[in-house]
Design brief:
Elements lengths: L2 H4 L11 E5 L4 H11 L3 E6 L18 H6 L4 E4 L5 H11 L4 E4 L5 H4 L4 H7 L4 E6 L14 H7 L7 E2 L2 E2 L6 H24 L4 E5 H8 L1 H10 L16 E5 L5 E5 L3 H11 L14 H6 L1 H12 L4 H10 L4 E3 L3 H5 L6 E4 L6 E4 L4 E2 L2 E2 L12 H7 L7
Length: about 375
């Protein structure tokens, strides 16, 4: 089956909903993109120069990779909200909205006259969402925040990396965590509105979304006094469980979870069945204790086989593994699902979302050019202005 066989028309589940989003960067566009892919009509309000994420790079034949990923299926409305006329236009559109999203700097949306509590006084069915760095309360609520800053502030950086130093998680994990948290909160609010007829205000922050994900190391530290060490691609308490290089220098990461797998590994991978009964390695705790000696044995064998040969042997032995893939590997990965998305500069083939619905992948709408829908939206909502 090909990716084209998996593709279907855009979903219609939220087709009757109007979403207005004054958004920029990653977290809020993530939420509204998922609503758009569920069938909602999403009006993306951009400043005249556009969402600054349009300029993060120009690597997708002139488009930003971030923007293409997060803005499929939206309408772009350019408004200079410093101007009263533009604010009046936005206010008029919001009166017909089901959901209002914003992630401007702390206090900015209130200064523009669109405080969520005021909007909900005028329209009690409205669901409002504000995404910020640190939330609506606490001593840091007024701080600006970006993904990497929150990776550091949340403690994520302290447990990510190698014994030699901390590293950044390679994707915008705090933004994505906030976007995912906000999306599920909106869906819950929509269900509640069906029951009560009332909307609600939702506040999501990058910091709190990510610190929720940090609960395991937090609980281990607070209640057990244990600080998680940075181990790179090696599991701290299971051995062997980590990345090992083949003869071609490429790595495969595998995991031994029980004694049956350890025996299979000794027989089929190492071809040293006697190691399964070696007292140094006869339990996981002992393998961890003698990890360096074990690694020396593994590396001696592994350096005679390429990564893909090792992966084949691990699969035959029914031992869980994953190749340590480069971007080249990912781009050619046989398990990929693809979708084709229209952009202002031409179609883009990209990785599909992680969901199949009744065996079919979601097919999103096109990525809008800056201000592409401004004129039509002003006409639809019967406003005339210079934007």
């Amino acid at each position: 089956m090909t990716s084209n066989d998996l593709a279907v028309a855009p979903a219609k589940d939220l087709a009757d909903l109007l979403v207005v989003s004054v958004e920029q960067a990653v977290a809020a566009p993530y939420v509204s993109s998922r609503l758009a892919e569920a069938g909602a009509r999403v009006i993306k309000v951009e400043r005249p120069e556009g969402d600054f994420a349009r300029g993060y790079d120009n690597l997708v034949h002139g488009e930003s990779a971030y923007f293409v990923w997060l803005n499929r299926g939206k309408e772009s409305l350019c408004l200079d909200l410093r101007q009263e006329e533009a604010r009046n236009t936005l206010a008029k559109i919001i009166t017909q909205a089901d959901i209002f999203i914003q992630n401007l700097a702390p206090g900015a949306i209130e200064r523009l006259g669109f405080a969520p509590d005021k909007l909900r006084e005028q329209n009690p069915r409205l669901i409002t969402l504000s995404i910020s760095g640190y939330g609506d309360e606490g001593p840091l609520r007024h701080l600006k925040a970006y993904d990497l800053l929150v990776q550091a502030e949340s403690g994520l950086s302290s447990i990510t990396g190698t014994p030699h130093g901390m590293t950044r998680v390679g994707v915008s994990v705090c933004d994505i965590a906030a976007g995912m948290t906000a999306y599920q909160a909106i869906l819950q609010a929509l269900i509640a509105r069906e029951k009560t007829g009332q909307g609600r205000h939702l506040s999501v922050s990058l910091f709190h979304a990510l610190t929720d994900w940090m609960n395991v190391p937090y609980l281990q530290y607070v209640y057990g006094g244990k600080t998680l060490e940075r181990n790179g691609l090696t599991h701290p308490t299971i051995a062997p469980y980590g990345a090992y290089a083949g003869s071609d220098g490429k790595e495969v990461l595998f995991s031994i979870q029980n004694e049956r797998e350890w025996q299979q590994f000794c027989i089929q991978l190492l071809e040293q069945p006697e190691l399964a009964h070696d007292l140094r390695f006869s339990s996981n705790s002992l393998r961890v204790e003698h990890r360096q000696q074990l690694n020396d044995i593994i590396n001696t064998v592994f350096k005679t086989l390429s990564r893909d040969e090792l992966a084949k042997r691990l699969q035959e032995a029914n031992i869980a593994f994953g190749r340590v893939s480069s971007m080249e590997d990912l781009s050619e990965h046989p398990q990929n699902r693809y979708i084709e998305v229209d952009t202002p500069s031409g179609p883009v083939t990209m990785l599909a979302t992680g969901i199949l619905t009744n065996g079919k992948a979601i097919q999103p709408g096109p990525v809008p050019a800056l201000g592409q829908h401004t004129e039509a939206l002003l006409a639809e909502f019967k406003t005339t202005q210079t934007v």
